[in-house]
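Example 9 (inverse folding). The structure is encoded as follows.
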């Protein structure tokens, strides 16, 4: 099967299966949780009661289709199992009557990240390509393992924190995956499997976004955002451009990452040090609460900034 046919068939299959799941929500009443709203998050009350955790559908579809078309042995199977575990832990939190505590989530993040970093280091190696220059660097194993753990944890939590505006997290993820694919192509690290694996999730997210754009009918919940965050980290490493995450995923880091940083510093110092005192985080909440942006305008501003940033980075990779 040619790469064109494989990409087309897998993408269409991923889209159709996800669309059908979003349309009919199989076992929805007994399977899914319902949004509880977010304390101090402006506008979150409109989502109360909506089906949440639908990430269990599109992540399951993306993993299944990806394995069918690009199964390459135990290494990839292990990584996809970890994606499913990230989804499952998030899904159980979505369904819980009371949100899981941060310590429980943090422990699970470190567990998944540690296993994922170990599996990747053993099976895929530690060579990375510097996206802008195209130079290949071999990172010492211990250092690569540490950086991989940090990348996975940051990606999972930043993606999760960004999922607070209809369509935002899904759209940013699509832009991220496309940019990763283009940069990897320019650096010669985009494989046939890499193309299909990226496209499968992209088209699953497109189908999901049909039902998630404002006004949303369903929410991905932690089941979707945490699994997507893990996949983004894995995909960056798989394409051998993990450092590109720092630029391409800057919208995730600024929008959701600053919120995590602010909370973490506040807790570690027992609120003696509070950064960004005059900024509401995540940044999408600042735009809505402090700037009075509508949900659609908030989405448009952040996505536009992300698209411009991605374009600048791609041009830099071509020119330099």
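The amino acid assigned to each position is listed next.
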């Amino acid at each position: 099967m040619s790469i064109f046919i494989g990409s087309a068939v897998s993408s269409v299959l991923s889209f159709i299966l996800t669309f059908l799941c979003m349309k009919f929500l199989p076992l929805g009443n007994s399977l899914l949780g319902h949004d509880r709203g977010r304390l101090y998050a402006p506008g979150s009350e409109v989502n109360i009661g909506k089906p949440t955790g639908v990430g269990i559908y599109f992540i399951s579809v993306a993993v299944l289709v990806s394995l069918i078309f690009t199964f390459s042995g135990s290494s990839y199977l292990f990584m996809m199992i970890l994606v499913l575990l990230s989804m499952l832990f998030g899904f159980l939190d979505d369904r819980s009557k009371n949100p899981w505590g941060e310590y429980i989530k943090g422990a699970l993040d470190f567990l998944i990240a540690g296993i994922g970093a170990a599996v990747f280091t053993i099976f895929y190696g530690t060579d990375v390509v510097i996206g802008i220059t195209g130079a290949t660097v071999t990172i010492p194993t211990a250092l690569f393992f540490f950086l991989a753990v940090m990348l996975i944890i940051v990606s999972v939590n930043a993606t999760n924190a960004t999922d607070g505006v209809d369509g935002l997290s899904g759209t940013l993820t699509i832009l991220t995956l496309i940019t990763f694919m283009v940069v990897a192509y320019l650096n010669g690290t985009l494989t046939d499997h890499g193309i299909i694996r990226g496209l499968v999730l992209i088209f699953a997210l497109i189908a999901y976004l049909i039902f998630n754009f404002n006004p949303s009918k369903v929410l991905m919940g932690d089941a979707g955002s945490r699994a997507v965050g893990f996949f983004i980290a894995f995909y960056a490493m798989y394409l051998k451009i993990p450092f590109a995450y720092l630029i391409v995923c800057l919208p995730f880091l600024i929008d959701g990452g600053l919120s995590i940083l602010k909370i973490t510093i506040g807790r570690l110092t027992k609120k003696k040090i509070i950064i960004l005192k005059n900024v509401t985080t995540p940044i999408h909440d600042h735009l809505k609460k402090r700037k009075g942006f509508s949900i659609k305008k908030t989405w448009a501003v952040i996505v536009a900034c992300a698209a411009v940033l991605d374009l600048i980075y791609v041009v830099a990779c071509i020119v330099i």
